[in-house]
Structure formats: structure tokens, C-alpha cells
């Protein structure tokens, strides 16, 4: 009986959070970027914030052949030289169908090739075609992206951003100017018609992620990281799975011994 109680206690004492810290893949397109300084800046900022959130990061130039082992992909490429190819579109859709979370970066109207590929990913995942627009840069941050970190006045100021006129039937604006459209749009778990287990966020502006961005934009990035992590169906790291397995095995063995004695 004592061993049974110890095994049960081992399980109850484990901390198994609703949103696991995970392995994050950052795709930055550094070899083909049209703005090396900007790419370096956003890679640094995102990496630092992900690590601060408890995540483990891997930074790569291009999308690898397999996304196995990652819980999220942050594709922060923005140049026209780095559109999402048909192969990557298929990879990302499959990844979201398996419960993964994806962030993709777009930009203003001068980055048509990149933006069109981001819109295609949205269409593949949602079954809807969204329209690209050029909204006003002063935009209100919409809940739940107003937290968990407080944004001073509830607004961010982009720098020559792009965006979409509508978030579609199941999506939600991350930020919006209230008239033309919004620069950020998101879908949480259960929102994507063709990938209901996954999550997708997109922002059509690169400058908000730079190390030199305004304080409110930096706070928005932290809140985005929290959203994607919460909406992602994560898998416990191997060490946690081993601990759970050992505890369950001990519990089962103790039960068998107790039943044998009772017989």
C-alpha cells in the first residue's frame, strides 16, 4: 500500500502545464534577405523573447525537410526573394493539422511575392481568401493580444505596414485601424477549417519585431508568443514523458501486488 501511495504521489506532484514550453524553429531567410540588418535585428529580438518565455530555439535560413520535434514555427522572412513555396505551404498545413503553431511575416505593398504566399497559406488553412490592404499604421491592439503583458495605451504604431481588410469568418484581428483593416490576424486552436488542431498568426510588418521597435510593439511581440504557445498542442519533453512512464509503471506494479495479496 505504501508503494501504491508513493507512485500516486509521484504523478500528482508533477507539474504538467496546459501550455508546455517547447522547441521553436525560427526561419529567418538570412542568406536571401534584402535587408540583412533588419533580419539580424528581428532574429535577435524574437530569439531573446522566446528564450525568456522558456522555449528552446533553433534558427535556420530555410525551412528544413522535416518539422518533426518542433511545437512552433516562426517564419520571419519578409523579402520577395523568400515567398512560401508550394512545398513549404504543404509542410506548414500538415504541421498545423498535427497541432503545431505557425507565425508568418508579411510586409507592405512593395513585398507582393511574399505577401501573396502568406495569403495563400491563410487560404489553405481557413478555406477563405483574404484581401490585402494598406491600413493606417496607428492601430488598436485587440484582446486577447492586450495581455498578459499590458500595452500602455492599447495601441501600436507600425512603420509602413500592410494588412488585410477582414480576418475572415473565424479569424480575429491582432491589431486594426478600425476602418481600412488590420496588420495582424490570428486563428487559434479550433478556428482553422482545414487544420482545426493548429494555430496560425500573421503580421504584415517587420519593423514591430526589431530590437529598436517602440515599447508597445515589443510588448505585443511578447503577447503573441504567449498566444501561440497557449494555442499550440504541445508534447511534453522526453524527460517528462519518462518520469510519467516510470510513475505509471510503479503504480501499476503496486496495484498488481495488492491484488495478488488480496486474492
Outline the fold blueprint.
Blueprint: H1 2-13, E1 23-27, H2 36-52, E2 56-60, E3 72-75, H3 86-97, E4 101-105, H4 112-126, E5 132-133, E6 138-141, E7 155-157, E8 163-164, E9 172-176, E10 184-187, E11 199-203, H5 215-231, H6 238-262
Parallel strand pairs: 1-2, 1-3, 3-4, 4-11
Antiparallel strand pairs: 5-8, 6-7, 6-9, 9-10, 10-11
Helix pairs in contact: 1-6, 3-4
- Termini Cα gap: 15 Å
Q: Helix segment count?
A: 6
Q: DSSP strand (E) fraction?
A: 15-25%
* Main CATH class of the largest domain: Alpha Beta
Indicate the mean pLDDT. 86
Q: What's the CATH architecture name of the largest domain?
A: 3-Layer(aba) Sandwich
Number of strands: 11
Provide the descriptors you would attach to this structure in a database record.
single chain; 263 residues; alpha/beta; Rossmann fold; 2 domains; two-stranded antiparallel sheet; 17% strand; globular; disordered C terminus
Short note summarizing the structure:
With 263 residues, the chain is α/β, with parallel strands linked by helices. The chain has six helices and eleven strands.
Structural commentary:
Helix 2 links the parallel strand 1 and strand 2 (56-60). Helix 3 (86-97) runs parallel beside helix 4 (112-126). 37% of the residues lie in helices and 17% in strands. The two termini are 15 Å apart. The protein has 263 residues and is α/β, with parallel strands linked by helices. The chain contains 6 helices and 11 strands. The chain has helices spanning 2-13, 36-52, 86-97, 112-126, 215-231, 238-262; strands at residues 23-27, 56-60, 72-75, 101-105, 132-133, 138-141, 155-157, 163-164, 172-176, 184-187, 199-203. Mean pLDDT is 86; it is low at 1-20 and 234-263. The protein folds into 2 domains: 1-16 and 237-263, no CATH class; 18-235, Rossmann fold, CATH 3.40.50.880. It is globular and about 40 Å long. 40% of the residues are buried. The strands form 2 sheets. It has a 9-stranded mixed beta sheet, sandwiched between helices. Strands 5-8 form a two-stranded antiparallel sheet.
Amino acid at each position: 500500500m505504501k508503494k501504491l501511495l508513493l507512485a500516486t504521489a509521484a504523478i500528482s506532484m508533477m507539474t504538467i502545464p496546459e501550455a508546455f514550453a517547447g522547441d521553436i524553429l525560427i526561419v529567418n531567410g538570412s542568406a536571401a534577405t534584402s535587408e540583412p540588418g533588419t533580419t539580424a535585428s528581428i532574429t535577435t529580438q524574437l530569439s531573446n523573447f522566446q528564450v525568456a518565455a522558456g522555449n528552446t530555439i533553433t534558427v535556420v535560413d530555410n525551412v528544413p525537410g522535416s518539422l518533426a520535434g518542433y511545437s512552433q514555427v516562426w517564419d520571419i522572412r519578409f523579402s520577395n526573394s523568400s515567398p512560401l513555396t508550394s512545398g513549404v505551404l504543404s509542410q506548414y498545413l500538415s504541421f498545423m493539422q498535427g497541432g503545431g503553431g505557425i507565425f508568418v511575416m508579411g510586409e507592405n505593398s512593395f513585398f507582393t511575392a511574399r505577401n501573396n504566399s502568406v495569403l495563400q497559406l491563410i487560404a489553405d488553412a481557413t478555406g477563405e481568401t483574404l484581401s490585402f490592404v494598406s491600413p493606417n499604421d496607428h492601430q488598436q491592439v485587440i484582446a486577447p493580444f492586450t495581455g498578459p503583458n499590458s500595452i500602455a495605451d492599447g495601441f501600436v504604431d507600425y512603420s509602413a505596414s500592410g494588412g488585410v481588410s477582414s480576418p475572415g469568418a473565424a479569424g480575429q484581428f491582432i491589431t486594426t485601424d478600425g476602418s481600412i483593416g488590420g496588420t495582424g490576424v490570428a486563428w487559434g486552436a479550433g478556428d482553422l477549417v482545414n487544420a482545426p488542431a493548429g494555430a496560425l498568426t500573421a503580421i504584415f510588418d517587420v519593423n514591430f519585431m526589431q530590437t529598436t521597435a517602440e515599447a508597445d510593439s515589443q510588448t505585443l511581440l511578447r503577447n503573441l508568443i504567449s498566444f501561440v504557445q497557449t494555442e499550440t498542442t504541445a508534447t511534453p519533453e522526453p524527460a517528462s514523458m519518462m518520469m510519467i512512464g516510470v510513475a505509471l509503471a510503479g503504480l501499476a506494479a503496486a496495484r498488481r501486488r495488492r491484488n495478488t495479496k488480496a486474492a
